[in-house]
Amino acid sequence: MEYTMTIAGVEKTMPLCKITDDLYIAGFIMFNDVEITEACARDLLKLAPEFDVLLTAETKGIPLTYEMARQADKPYIVARKGAKLYMQDVVMVQVKSITTSHVQMLCLGGDERKVLEGKRILIVDDVISTGESVAALEQLVDTVGGELVGKFAVLAEGEAADRKDITYLEYLPLFNSDGTPQ
After folding, report:
1. Burial 110-147 (b: 16+ CB within 10 A, else e)
2. 32 φ, ψ to 5°?
3. What does the alpha-carbon distance between residue 50 and residue 6 come to, in Å, rounded to a whole number?
4. Is 153 within the bounds of a domain?
5. Summary mean pLDDT of the chain
6. According to the model, what pLDDT value does residue 136 have?
7. Is 57 exposed, middle or buried (0-12, 13-18, 19+ CB in 10 A)?
8. C-alpha span between 127 and 105 (Å, rounded)
């Protein structure tokens, strides 16, 4: 089963992935898709307030965040899924995403903290569904003393579309086991 939609002027076909017996999600993957990544970055930047730094969580938001940073000529930071040997003075928060089977950590090292401290920060993700990843990034922004100026995603999935605190390009429905939108 697949779902096709147009995002930032680009048609994208996504496989439907089983979460539970009654719930499927569309697998939106930007990796290897330069056209959708460039188009979404362009359209999200048109909606963005003034910011100094972009912040995303490892892994799927990286291409989008990089491209937004490139187009805006701004730095970006990636919160890693675990502390790396080279990281000093690490700050960590827990996150449980709908697409991951276990609790993960998001980490920033001292070098990343220095880039974010006192700066206007725009959080970026590919899809906001439960909002857990964004909430973890918000905690990191608070911890490092940054100013959160916006939460941006390409797609808002399910009830996330009703949130007033996020900016997104398109609504992505959840799906029944037969592939029909809920």
Report:
1. eebbebbeebebbbbbbbbbbbbbbebbbbbbeebebe
2. 70, 5
3. 27
4. yes
5. 93
6. 92
7. buried
8. 18
Which CATH number fits the domain that encloses residue 137? 3.40.50.2020
Show the tokens assigned to 92: 């960590």
Neighbours of 74 (CB within 10 A): 16
Calpha distance 146→41 (Å, rounded) = 22
Is the pTM value of this prediction over 0.85?
A: yes
Q: Which domain holds residue 67?
A: 35-171
pLDDT at 160 over 70: yes
Is 21 inside a domain boundary?
no
Structural domain contains residue 162:
yes
- Residue 78 identity: V
61 within domain boundaries: yes
| Residue bearing the bigger pLDDT, 99 or 176 | 176
Strands, DSSP E only, in the chain? 2-7, 10-20, 23-26, 53-57, 76-79, 91-95, 104-108, 120-128, 147-157, 167-172
**pLDDT tens-digit map of 98-151:** 555 667 889 999 899 999 999 999 999 999 988 888 999 999 999 999 999 999
Quickly list H helices, the chain. Answer: 34-47, 62-72, 110-116, 132-144
Between residues 104 and 38, the one the model is more confident about: 38
